[in-house]
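From the pipeline queue, job 12 of 40. The input is one protein chain; the requested action is below.

Action: predict structure.
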Amino acid sequence: MSKSYGNLGVLFDVSLSIPIGQAVGIVGPNGAGKTTFLSVINGTEPTSAGSVFFNGTDVTKQGAEERSRSGIGRTFQIPRPFSNLSVFENALAGAAFGGGLRGREAQTAALDALEKSEMMQFANLRAGGLSLLARKRLELARALSTQPKLLLLDEIAGGLTEAECISLIATIKNLKDSGITIVWIEHVVQALVAVVDRLVCLASGTIIQDGIPDEVLKSREVLSVYMGTGI
């Protein structure tokens, strides 16, 4: 698929197939089109050309709400919780509006999401008073409350300390082990390689490498465009 804004091209003939249960890391320089790629997958942005298939169904014409309720969950780079609501109420909103769940089913999904994101201890706290790590975990919980089969993570480790990053990596590993398919954009490369099965490098809107993480990171082309080492 391709994506452009008027005459400005962002993604060019990007083709990627992800098996169920696989964790895929996406790396690349700023402006490579990584976040736009996630936006096209979850329906926040429409494709300009090409198609998006999820579980064998063409979802290209579906919006973000319909895709969310079909099983595509997403976090965003900058967490924006409902600050005046509790942590539990934030997760419940994700279950109700993102997952289309109601009543006890929505409450159960919200509690399960808080458990999986290790936020249960903060359930009754106001979201506006959380630390950065807790806000990141709440962003994850809101995505999980929709009960996704595919989880899209956009720089969830950004801005965290090394210890906080290690803690979050363990959480995401557990999600992967539970069978959720993951696509994870991250500049903290050591976080990615600790979790993902596969690494994809985007540059100037195209995929330049796709394979085993260690091999991709050693590629001269990737070192040139992403690490800035030159060839």
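Job complete. The beta strands are 3-5, 8-11, 23-27, 53-54, 57-58, 72-74, 150-154, 181-185, 198-203, 206-211.
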